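Extended Data, panel c. Modelled sequence:
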Amino acid sequence: GVDRLMFPTSIPDGFQVEANDLYLQPEFDRLDFSIWYSNGNDDILFDILYSKKANKIYEKDEQNIELYESGGTEYYIFSNNGQNVAAWYADRLEYSLSTTLAVPELKIILDSIDQQ
């Protein structure tokens, strides 16, 4: 029942895929896919969640949430524990991208997201 997936097409130079995971729970109608990139002390974690019964819970610090629009999608950007996070919902899927990179670099990745 998913018509499209959204993936970043631009990951900064030097980042390599360290791990990926596909977690299925058919009894709960839940699927969670993640891919982790690393470059020394910096990392990027991209996650896609499909669930009919639950959403992810995000923690954030005292900084305000920034609403960022790119390519017709609204992203919620916030920070927690030294990570900058973008979360959004599209076509019954919940997405998140968290990174140690600064917000301007996170926005460059978000700007590259391709809807297939």
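Helices lie at 103-111. This feature is highlighted in the accompanying rendering.
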